[in-house]
Specification:
11 helices, single chain, about 300 residues, Isopropylmalate Dehydrogenase, globular
């Protein structure tokens, strides 16, 4: 990790970190902290670690439900630290959801877990690249669960949070939000689905009456053209794989996942666990660096 104008603290088991440093022959030292107040600004070649013990030793790329609680303990401590300390942000690495579920712990993802832990009513997932922001009306749901999860009320809540955080976190004075339709061709006036007529349009009208600047519903297949994107500050997709493949195709490795609607700042990477790369030294750190840099900017108000 390079020098940073911030105190970077890693929550993990120091023995695990030491073994990876040794196996990969990295020139990295650890400084074990007893309290976050001991942390200093990040310098190259050093990691400041707040210890959290593993339940069992880890083998690279091998899943172990016995360590599921270890992952949640990391998250619990991080939320506590962010809640108690000003100008603090949480950066998360990928998590294997299936392993946590195999341990008998219900878990659908960071976004939902963090919302429940912090008491946030409506978390909103948004992925950010250098020139595109894509938020989601729904998060980690099976495709057949999506239509019933989109209501006028839920859409109004999501768009209100998106509009608020674009203003407060990204300093966009009057955000322009392009909202995608759910159905092909945005329902084609009810021929290909009625959600646009019965749910999306009424939500957009209600919010427009409150002064929000909204465009849509726009057919998803033509929404990401250069001309369309030039008209907006963010795109709201109706479901996970409607919007995220586009931003990842355009800027994979340079995209940051940020959770809106939380009382804390949380960013993350744009990829999954890539178990086949664990311990190999060939995993790319680009997205993690971007997530750390954005977290610092958001926490310090320098975005």
């Amino acid at each position: 990790m390079h020098d940073l104008p911030a105190r970077l603290i890693v929550l993990c088991d120091p023995n695990l970190l030491a073994s990876r440093i040794r196996d990969l022959r990295l020139r990295v030292s650890q400084r074990i902290l007893k309290d976050v107040k001991e942390a200093e600004c990040q310098t190259k070649g050093s990691l400041q670690v707040l210890p959290i013990p593993l339940a069992r030793p880890v083998q690279p790329g091998q899943l172990d439900p016995e360590n599921a609680q270890y992952v949640l303990n990391q998250l619990k401590m991080s939320v506590e630290l962010c809640s108690k300390n000003k100008h603090t942000a949480l950066v998360t690495a990928p998590v294997q959801k299936s392993t946590i579920n195999e341990a008998g712990i219900p878990f659908t993802g960071h976004t939902e877990w963090l919302a429940q832990r912090t008491g946030a009513m409506r978390p909103v997932m948004m992925l950010v690249s250098s020139n595109l922001r894509v938020a989601l009306a729904t998060t980690h749901l099976s495709l057949d669960s999506v239509p019933a999860s989109i209501t006028q009320g839920s859409l109004e809540e999501v768009i209100t949070i998106l509009n608020h955080d674009l203003r407060s976190l990204f300093s966009i004075e009057s955000p322009k939000i392009m909202v995608l339709g759910l159905n092909p061709h945005a329902g084609e006036n009810g021929t290909l689905g009625k959600e646009e007529l019965e749910i999306i349009n009424p939500a957009l009208q209600a919010l427009s009456n409150r002064g929000l600047t909204l465009i849509g519903p726009v057919p998803a297949d033509t929404a990401f053209t250069r001309e369309r994107l030039a008209q907006c500050d963010a795109v709201l997709a109706m479901y996970h794989d409607q919007g995220l493949p586009v931003i990842k195709a355009l800027a994979f490795g340079q995209v940051v996942n940020i959770t809106l609607g939380l009382p804390i700042i949380r960013t993350s990477v744009d990829h999954g666990t890539a178990l086949e790369l664990a311990g190999s030294g060939s995993a790319r750190p680009d997205s993690l660096r971007q997530a750390v840099d954005l977290a610092i900017k958001l926490a310090t108000g320098s975005r």
